[in-house]
Amino acid sequence: MDKHVLLVEDEPNIAEAMRFILSRDGWRVSTHGDGTDAAAVIRAAAPDVVVLDVMLPGRSGFEILQELRAGESTRDLPVLMLTAKGQARDREMAERAGASRFLTKPFANTEIVAALRDLVGR
Amino acid sequence: MIASQLLVLASLIYVGALFLVAFLVERRAARGGIGWLRSPLVYTLSLSIYCTAWTFYGAVGYAARSGLEFVTIYLGPTLVFIGWWWFLRKLVRIGKTQRVTSIADLISSRYGKSNLLGVMVTVLAVLSSTPYIALQLQSVTLAFQAFVAGPADGAALPGPDTTALWVAAGLALFTILFGTRNLDANEQHQGVVTAIAVEAAVKLVALLAVGVFVVWGVADGPLDILHRVTAAQRGAWELRPDRWVGLTFLAGVAVFTLPRMFQVLVVENVNERQVATASWAFPLYLFAMSLFVVPIAVVGLDVLPAGANPDLFVLTLPLAMNQGGLAMLAFLGGFSSATSMVIVAAIALSTMVSNHMVMPAWLRFGPRQATLAGDVRRVVLLARRISIAAVLAMGYGYYVLTGGSEALASIGLISFVGAAQVLPAMLGGMFWRGATRAGAATGLGLGLAIWLYALFLPSFGPSGLIPAQVLAAGPWGIDWLRPQAMLGVNGMDPLIHALFWSLTVNTLGFCTVSLLTFPGPMERLQAAHFVNAFDKGPGAAGWSRGAAEAEDLLVMSQRILGPGAAQAFFSAQARAQGIEGFLPEPTPEFLERLERLLSGSVGVATAHAMIAQIAGGASVSVEDLMAVANETAQIMEYSSQLEAKSEELARTARQLREANAKLTQLSHQKDGFLSQISHELRTPMTSIRAFSEILMAGGLNPADAERYAGIIHDESIRLTRLLDDLLDLSVLENGRVSLSETEVSLRALIERAIAAAQPGMMAVERDPAAEAVSVLTDADRLCQVFINVISNARKYCNAPKPRLRIAVRALGDEVQVDFADNGRGIAPESQALIFEKFARLGDQSHAGGAGLGLAICREIMANLGGTIAYLPGQGGAAFRVTLPRRMARAA
């Protein structure tokens, strides 16, 4: 237990909701709200899993994911992507960019918990 | 002795034989089997019409009177045929390529198809040939009388005039029958030519037979003749160099300028090989003809009683020696000479008269659209027949009028001088490109006038047309105008005098006027064709475009050529154009060929005029060039119209492409907009759903539960506001917004906006005096814009001490309200985007809005008749709201 999840989400309310849910499930949760330095923050924190929003200020989630997949330490890091647009094209782009899992907002609390558990093999 | 009846019978049988020959040959020719006709022999024999009755009988008389001078008449042609055969070849080549039908046609064709020249040459030819024809009638009559009235009884004889009349009538009949049987494409008469060749043989045989009889039958062989010649020469025979040179020259010119000679030499010529043979064979023939002239003359002078007409020695010598058969042969020889000359001369003259005088007159004065309305073929043939009859009637008239006043030879020479007047125009036309129509007309006119005045009119004798006193003292006593001693040149032989003056003045006039005048375009074209006759095949140029209707042309051609020949020509031409079975296109080439074909029948000028009547614009004239230029201009205009059309099409295509691009863009915008709305709706939904599920799961402390419920509440309000904004924007964009305009004070409005926007810790700077402006507008909507701008400043101004300055300015008919904060402003590249929907810049975490605010502001201002724009360079973010000052007044 005590896996570390990093939430990269600019919407404060959504970030607070996820933090509450995941903490209650036994995750160690940290959050970050800006796209510009997200990749560096992720590399520095070295979490077990990342929840990455697509629409971030400064830099889009796809670009951040591409950088992660290109980096040595983060190539195999499980990443769960979140998008609010919910279109098929976004899912395709996420898969191509190397997302481990993909969820469309709004989602059920159980959905994200199950997805993250699955990603880290808990 | 031979009875007159026998003589008439023999003549009739001979004429009948000629009819038969001509008829058979015509029939053979019609079937195409005329290969032998093309032989140079027939051509050479036909040239022998140069030796007329004048030569046959007259040469002996000439020799008896003037010694060897008669030789000049043979010498001239011999020199021309041997030394100038290249010239004859060129003449024949031109005649072939231009389809020349007569000497008048040649001159007319050379000088731009001028009919005036055609008429002049025709008049000249008719005038000069008439005495000649009279001469032939006279010779036949004299011969007939010599025969019958000789030593025998002078029983019931027709008078000389009656004989001449019958001869003339008979010749007219023969000529009409064989000379106008058809309007052949080349104006060639195989039947007549063959008959003439037969006659040439007959007269040669007859003269040789008489000669042989005289030398070996009467005298004792050639030696005896030489003795007699030497004895006779002591008498009056003198050699006059001026006459020798003059007559040799004259005979040499006459052999190709006499109308009948031109007819057989050029018109009836089949190929140039014939000319080559004739260049040696014809002089040989002339030599044979002249061989026994001197013997017959000296023997005649010796044997026959003094006072016997030497012109008839050929006939009277055998008669005196009781050689009836030989005399009969001699008579037939003379008869042949006379008839063949008259027939060819009549054909040549009638061709000229009908082509250059009757047809042009008929075309001009005849029924309108004459070429289509009537049977041209019949008119042409009728004109020919009447012309033939008229020519012979004139000859007969001249014979009766002069009463045989002159010796045979002098009449012939008068004709020669007349025909020679064509020489300058002909030679100039063939070798000098600068020769002009005006020059030719001047030369011909002057030469004709002098010839008439100095030679032709005096030939009628002192009792004739020119009174004796004029001959002696000049008209009105003007000495230097005496017809036979012009400019005081006395003592010259009248003939040589007339020849000298007429040709000198003719040539001078021709050259001077040619140098002074400028040839027309058609003349220059024809000049090139004539002067460079050997350079190129095709002949007369002219038809520049195909305005003619093929059908009209066919109708006309059928009337001239006959239906069979015309249709054959047209279908052959159509086949050549690759449209077999249809009428040929009236291309310039086709018109040219047709013109040449028709000109064979009706002459160059007439054919040209006929086609011009149908084809419209005729030859290469300035008008034609203008027409061509116009056509070109029209084509250019048309192509520029096409260009404009294609530009228009290209423009339309571009517009369609643009419209399509716009639609595609709009479609993308719509997709993007929907995607944005989806995002804007899903984001609050996510919070609401997550916290509701947390609340539903329970087990929370009351403080958390209350805070989470608060978040759900705030997000619901955010959703509602988003939906409100969307609906508002939709209404504004579609222009369906209802405005309630009232007069409000800007100051009150700004205060209300500030109160609503709650600037909080941000300081607001205002100038209440400037705000004292009253406007007529929808106060709620304008206030909405102000609130939005002030809220944005509050939200985005990141200065440590945020400050907003509101400035109002009334400028003319508009009012400006500026809102400027002291933050970092908006980057230049983003300034164009901020009024777009969902164009939220940078960190939106604390924006709270849906990103539709400024888009709504822009739509509101557009609806109020004003604008809202970003104001760069104000030190921070600055917006300017501009209002129309419509009905607003200072408060």
What do these coordinates show?
The complex is a heterodimer of chains A (122) and B (891). With 122 residues, chain A is of the alpha/beta class. Chain A has a single domain, classed as Response regulator (Rossmann fold). Chain A has helices spanning 12-24, 38-45, 61-70, 88-97, 109-120; strands at residues 4-8, 28-32, 49-53, 79-83, 101-104. Chain A has a five-stranded parallel β-sheet with strand order 2-1-3-4-5, sandwiched between helices. In chain A, strand 4 (79-83), helix 4 (88-97) and strand 5 form a beta-alpha-beta unit. The longest helix of chain A has 13 residues, at 12-24. Chain B is mainly alpha-helical. Chain B folds into five domains: 4-405, Sodium/glucose cotransporter; 422-535, no CATH class; 555-620, no CATH class; 624-733, Helix Hairpins (Orthogonal Bundle), CATH 1.10.287.130; 742-884, 2-Layer Sandwich (Heat Shock Protein 90), CATH 3.30.565. In chain B, the strands form two sheets. In chain B, strands 2-4-5-7-6 form a five-stranded mixed β-sheet. A two-stranded antiparallel ribbon of chain B has the order 1-3. Chain B is rod-shaped and about 180 Å long. At the A-B interface, helix 1 of A face helix 29 and helix 30 of B.
Largest sheet of chain A: 5 strands, parallel
User: Which percent range describes the beta-strand content of chain B?
Assistant: under 5%
User: What is the typical, i.e. mean, pLDDT of chain A?
Assistant: 88
Give the class of chain B from helix and strand content and strand pairing: mainly alpha
CATH names the topology of the largest domain in chain B as Sodium/glucose cotransporter
CATH topology of chain A: Rossmann fold
**Overall structural domain count of chain A:** 1
The helix/strand order of chain A is EHEHEHEHEH
Strand content of chain A: 15-25%
Q: Which shape of chain A, going by the Cα principal axes?
A: globular
Gap between N and C termini of chain A: 8 Å
Instruction: Give me the side-by-side strand order of the main sheet of chain B.
Output: 2-4-5-7-6
Pair of chains with the largest interface and how many residues each contributes:
A-B, 25 and 22 residues
CATH architecture of the largest domain in chain B: Up-down Bundle
What is the first-to-last residue Cα distance of chain B?
Answer: 157 Å
Mean pLDDT of chain B: 78
Tell me the quaternary state: heterodimer
Class based on secondary structure composition and strand pairing of chain A: alpha/beta
Question: What is the count of helical runs of chain A?
Answer: 5
- The CATH class assignment of the largest domain in chain B is Mainly Alpha
